[in-house]
């Protein structure tokens, strides 16, 4: 398990930094599929090399990595719609979504995504801002609801 300091160890990439990094090292697999010219959003590089969209997602990714839980970031949901998940745990067949703060702009999108998970009968763990304060406790508790025993992880 990563310490609190290691869990939050991420590198933030702005659009400008991604352009510089991409030019410097085109073989970096964590940058594949990122189109910095299209997005103004910042990216965060996690301990295991994933590039994620927020510091909250970086904390989740780092926690999963520290717990030795195999996971994919941004995998396509098994649906006809081109929708990506936050995290997918292939061994456990569980999806994790960080929904963060809900506001009028993203409220409908979040509701639609929840409906899609329900329609597809997929196991979903939702993480919100209050869960981030005690991420270890939140993820252990929510994963145990799906029968995942994390006692092996200290």
Can you summarize this structure?
34% of the residues lie in helices and 15% in strands. The protein has helices at residues 4-7, 15-24, 55-66, 107-119, 129-132, 135-144, and strands at 11-13, 43-45, 51-52, 72-73, 87-89, 94-98, 123-127.
How helix-rich are the residues, as a percent range?
25-40%
- The level 1 CATH classification of the largest domain is Alpha Beta
Mean pLDDT across all amino acids: 76
Q: How large, in whole angstroms, is the Cα Rg?
A: 16 Å
Sheet-strand content, in percent, reads 5-15%
Count of helices?
Answer: 6
Whole-number tally of structural domains: 2
Query: Quick one: biggest sheet?
Result: 4 strands, mixed
Query: Secondary-structure element sequence?
Result: HEHEEHEEEHEHH
Descriptive notes:
With 154 residues, the chain is α+β, with helices and mostly antiparallel strands. The protein folds into 2 domains: 1-67, no CATH class; 69-146, Endonuclease, Chain A, CATH 3.40.960. The protein has 6 helices and 7 strands. It has a 4-stranded mixed β-sheet with strand order 4-5-6-7. Strands 1-2-3 form a 3-stranded antiparallel β-sheet. The protein is globular. It starts with a helix and ends in a 10-residue tail after the last helix.
């Amino acid at each position: 398990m990563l310490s609190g300091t290691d869990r939050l160890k991420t590198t933030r990439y702005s659009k400008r930094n991604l352009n510089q990094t991409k030019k410097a090292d085109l073989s970096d697999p964590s940058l594949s599929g990122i189109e910095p010219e299209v997005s103004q959003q910042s990216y965060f590089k996690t301990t295991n090399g994933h590039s994620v969209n927020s510091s909250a997602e970086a904390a989740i990714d780092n926690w999963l990595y520290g717990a030795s839980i195999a996971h994919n970031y941004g995998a396509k949901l098994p649906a006809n719609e081109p929708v990506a998940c936050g995290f997918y745990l292939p061994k456990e067949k569980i999806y994790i979504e960080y929904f963060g703060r809900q506001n009028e702009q993203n409220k409908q999108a979040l509701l639609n995504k929840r409906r899609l998970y329900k329609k597809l009968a997929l196991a979903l763990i939702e993480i919100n801002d209050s869960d981030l304060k005690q991420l270890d406790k939140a993820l252990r508790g929510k994963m145990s609801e799906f029968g995942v025993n994390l006692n092996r992880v200290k």
